[in-house]
Queue: 2 jobs
Job 1
Amino acid sequence: MPTHTPSFPDLLFEDAARLRRWEAQLMGHLDGAGYRELHPSLVMRNPVNPTTVRFFDGDQLVALRWDFTEALARTLVRRFQEPPRRISYAGPVFRRPANSWDPVERLEVGCEHIQTDPDQRAEADRELARLLMDVPGLLGLEGCLLHIGHAALLRRPMEVEGIPAELGLEVARVLDRRAIHRAAELLDGHPAKDRLLAHAEILLSGPDGPGSLADLVRGPYGALLEAEAEQLTRVLNLLSAQSPKGLTLRLDLGDLRGLAFYTGPTLRLWAPGAQRDLASGGRYDGLYPEMGRPWYAAGFCVRLTTLLELGDNTEGGK
Amino acid sequence: MKPLLIALPKGRLEEELLPRLRGTAFELDARALKSRKLRIPMADPTMAAILLKGADLPRYVAGGVAALGVVGSDILDECPVDLMELADLNFGVCRLSLCAPDHTTLDQLRGKPHLRIATKFLGATGRWLRQEGITAELVPLQSSVELAPVLGLADAIVDLVQSGKTLLAHHLVELTTLGKASARLVACRGTYLSEPDLIGPLAKALAALLKAEPGR
């Protein structure tokens, strides 16, 4: 082949061995916590998302699995009346990336916790956070950061102010880039512009400790977001007490990626020197009700592709 | 320890940017600047600048080669890369405008059965055409776009306008403004979020410096 494309990377011997070792370590970790593997098909039907890798199977448009969470959900609602509580998964997903040079084929290991009782949600979130906090140690990574955010911190103020859904997503997209000046342009002429921008300033003040929560409570939507602020304080205090050596916990109120999907606390794991997050997840209580099941869910996935890119810079890469 | 790289643009924005860095930790080494070197030491030896064409700069930052960069918003709007856009630096301000030969009106352009618009800004022009419900052929050009209507390659152009003198010299007039452009401070997402204690304060200091008028 005359040109080299990184979109579908081939893993030669050492990298293939690393991949298998990491998969085994992480799946063993999840298995030890009671998560059972589910392996949804690599081919998914009804691909509405334009970022998928699509092709025709006869006269039917199909796509390579673009997202494990959606693939699992489609399988579970079809096959189970009562959901299995703890599920793990491992394998590739195929999705067009934001940067043209990033890989389309990405290797992941992850898990999902499903609840039928809303009162079980807080404990499930803590369980998932604890599992994720163990990941850097399992992979031999030092100096990682775990960012904790909350999807409702921007969504609820925008709903209260009557921001149309499409505009809301656009505002979230530019704020995810920390581009508050672009949010100002988008909200130009809206009566809540000044309030929302003052709120955005607080959210984007930078990954920080509990101080940013105090600002949030004193801000224009402090009363509205009181429950979320309390929840984040509780989560941060609890997890800080259990945080393994070499992992730093930080609040990142400006983590707005996936706002259309996440509904509650979010987690994002960063390794020093990585250009992409090593793992991400959170609570997405809207997914199963959309598919006709009154279930609540949260989960995270570890991106082994990011870990491979870190390569020999990590203990885990050796 | 390798110096932390900051990507700075060559050309239009460079002239306004460099005076703002003088006398600070970000000042570029004058001798290296006069040479043909593209990697220039800064006054603070823990940092160095790389001078890049605007169109290439986002790639260097998004790929993590440079931790921070300064680039025009017109460039950012044309290339879909995953960057943090930390501040509008409010210099290098210009308009992205639809321009046509003297005495042409927008309605005349709308009425053309086969409208041709020459531009470097294919993304922004395409978005504006869709928003306005106008069908046109886009003629991609990289430079000297003003020549296209003069020589009959296109009916109109979409280009950046700062003073309007180049338009005047080619007997062109602005018909409408598609948007505004200015210099932006950008950061590599991975570096910014995984090393916030290093990059955050540096980005704040650079933004404050570049937003200030030179000499103040």
Job 2
Amino acid sequence: MRAIVVKELRENLRWLPVGVLIIGVFLWLVTPVSIKYGQISTENITSACGVGAALFAIALGALQSIFDLSDRQRGYLFHRSISGNAVMFGKVVAGAILYAFACAIPLTCLALWFAWMGPEYLPVRPAQLLPSVLMCVACFFLHPATLISVDRQARWFGTKLFPLVAVAAPLIMFLELTRGGGTMGWWFVTTVYVLLFAVVLIAIQPHHWSRKLLLVVGSVVTAIICVVFAVTCRESLKFQQAQPTYAQIGLDAAGQPWYYRGKQIREGNGYSYKQIALSGAPIRADQMPNLDAALPTNFEPHNFSYVVSNKTWQWRSRFASIDYSTQSHLKTFYYDNRGLALVYDRENEPPLTGVVSRAGFHALGEVPGAPFSLNAIAFGNQLSQPLANAGYDSLWADRDGVYQFSPESGAVTTLLNMPIDSGTGIVPIGGDAPQLLLSSGGNIHQFELVDESGETTWYDLDSPDRHYAITRSLPALKLQEVATFPAPPFSQSDFSSMAVTAEGKIVALDIANTAYATLDSNNASQWQVTHFVSPQQPVGPDAMLMAALLPIGLYLVFTSFFVVGNVMAGRAPLTQLDVSLPSADTLWVLIVVAIVAALALAMVTNWLCRRRGLGRGSVVLWTIATLILGLATPIAVVAIYPKLVCEPCPDCQRSRRIDRTKCPHCAAKWCSPPATGIELLEGQALVVGSNERRAVTAT
Amino acid sequence: MQIHITAGSPQSIYRQISDQIRRLVAADKLNVGDAVPSVRQLAKDLVINPNTVAKSYAELVRDGVLESQQGRGYFVARRKNIYTKAERLRRLDEALDQAVGEAITLDFTPEEISERLQMRLEKLLPQAHGTK
Amino acid sequence: MLGELVISAQGLTRYFGRKVVVHDMDLSIPRGSVTGLLGLNGAGKTTTLRMLLGFLEPTRGACQIFGCDSQSLTPEDRARIGYTVEGHFLYGWMTVRQSQEFQRQTFPNLNVGLFTETVRRFGIDPAQKNRTLSRGQRAGVSLALTLATEPELLILDDPALGLDPVSRRALNETLLDFCDGGQRSILLSSHLLDDVERVADRVAVMVHGRLLVHTTVDDFRARVAAWSLDLPPASRAIESIPGLVQARSLGGRTVVTVADPDQETAAAIARLSNSEPERLSVTFEDAVIAYLSRSRDSQSFLAHTGA
């Protein structure tokens, strides 16, 4: 085994620089770009590292095994007094060593760079590269999978595809764990899928190079076209006004909750959305509202604000993720998990100017004050959503209070010193300034955000000089308590969202959308709970998510049928592609079409498998695989299994397979080809018959 | 003892070996009781398969040219006739037919041929000739 | 009759696509024999050897080495088999000595003395890189590596391909030394008929994937005969000769090669010839070539050599 390892190392050492280059380039693509915009994300580094490492692992595995497909090299290497598995294991060990260096060199350089730059320049520690290291370790399993796939002859389903599927599945799960999904993850999934498919195709027997090449190129091109097409559609649709409709709950001007079907449109400069209601009905007790009823003219829904809790994981500093950051006035603030916010000023040298604690800004070298008890930037940002929507700086908040931070002066003003469990920011219907509803110890405290003169008129939702990248400064604010009341008495203790009406009534919606409660804050009397029947929420698949989960092949079929389905449902085809929650009809059409398409494909696969003469087990497995892997499966079957060759049976003249000993029709064995009369075999003498010569064994 | 073999000749290799040993014995280059090289040695010297040598020796033993002594190797045997008179005549005729046929095609007169034959007999078998 | 078998095959058949490369081959090779496997390029020799060593699955049929199915040879079985691939593949970046070390680490016991001796016979410096070796030297290293593992059975795929006369002689000597004790066996494919005649005691001829000849060299020679007929070339009439292997025209006459001639054959030949047919002597090479020419033009018995 040691001999194999040494030999493989010596032979493949030349690929090490290539590996360093691939992984290095991917890291380079992510890192300096992030730094330019003042943000560096461990998530992005992990993804980039993963793509580079996966590519290298597959390439290395292929390079280590593809030459052994030649008869001579195979005969020389495998005819030894060591088992084939030992040879394979040796190759994997050698691959692991090379791969480790290929990953370690760029990552070490990056870590050294981080360390050399220091926290004054970059808000990352070298230790934050650990997720990337884990990613590299995980991606290495593609190497033996490739090795096995290239080496093995496909005889039954599992031997060819199973190693790759088995590796790809946990890898994708790992990826989802280390990062929160998003477009990058989708790209990664696509990349991995395409690569895996390509590897499967490369692994076909060495006789059909042209077909193999065609399939690899074809599948990669198809995949790229699909991805480009899907992303283009998505991006272009983002900037069109058309949005899908879906059911939601809102209040009318009088504070009456309505169930309505509405859509969101971009308005103004395109950075904010506006709800438009199309149809719906008021919510009455114990009734199911008719979603399709006509609305009164000038009906304008006001939406509820979601209540955020301090328990959510998002406010904790996660190991594998970027610390929450916010940007304003060319400064970037990172929440450091010691409870302080680091301030990076891009115009300063070095960029790290100091830290912010609950006591205010401290330049480097000063002793900071008390730390925040949560990621104050993130939690405050969520609490003061109305401020963010209007482009203002956000308030900061943690478990112990609400703070106003002035980016210019660096001063931190404590607006409220009170334990906070959860809360939300709300602009009352027809109101002029946002309010904070903060839940603390079973009670809800209602605050108005007022300026120093006690007025709420400072709030200005849409300012013409607003810029998407630079936030507006807040005036010096105060929290003025309006009322205190108990939490709404829902059966489940949580409530999902709240709103404040023009008359100052509070409306709370329970988390299951089956009850709402109203309370007149001026009287601070009891909550009035109304139960209602919620129409079935049509929850549809996100087209992009499906694209990520379903392989490219099925996605193509899916998309085309999807368009057809939409046309059948009476909608313009393309405008519906970005559907998050399609209507129930569309969804049904969609599901039916998808199932029909999948079943049709499965039937095609089944037919192909039987034509290729696979065993019953393999046929069933491949057919089931079609439902999961889509169009890739029949292509793989065609590519992997050789054509079935039949010849007429010498006995019954019917067509029979050449690789079976017995004829399925007459159970005859193959007989030797007719003697030519010139066979010279030992121990056999030729005797002369009447006209023909027959070989008989001499006795 | 000098034996040459040629691959690709009309005579098979084992026949070439046995013919040459026969000739050597007939010409008294090998005397009764002389040892011939072992099968392995001869095969090695000639770069041929030992089985071929073994086969040729086996034929020579069968024809009474050589005799095998257990564990010691092969030796030239005392001459004894194992063929009947008729068989010997038939074999002689066969050999002469071939030689005479060849000679006729080369345009030699019968006198020339018999003179030539006589010369060869004297050279190859001096003592036999003398006793006659 | 054949003693203990080292190689056997029953109905061994292999297709590549629709083309049958090895067709229904029955093979029995006894211990202690040197078998020359002859055939034109593409006759199925390499495919047969690859199936024997378990590197290729037969389409149907089976083959065994030492009685063990070729598809499931264990490392211990492989240690008893020496195999050199066509063209004597070696890793070019290794030196001869490194190749020896690689072999030593992957086989249970390597006879270093034998290796050194064989390498010396081919005139090779052990410090040389494999890629700088000549073809003959590479064959020497390859052979030395294989022989030094002291196998019981040697399977050589065209070992003499492209070798100079000196290397060929060294190869033949090495092979004969190898099977000195009579217990070791060799199966080699080759195109060099003279060498096969010298070294082999058994011959197997493959034509179009079929094993037409498999017997001892002497038996083979004894059973093939040739006549020169006074018959115009390209006459279809000769196809009636029983056991006709090949017919070719030579100086206005037709030369026929037949297998296992008997009275019926002689009678048929006498009938066809306008004058007395002339019996020709057949060399080993003639006999093999008669079989191999047949595969060139299997549709007709007439090989158009002279015409």
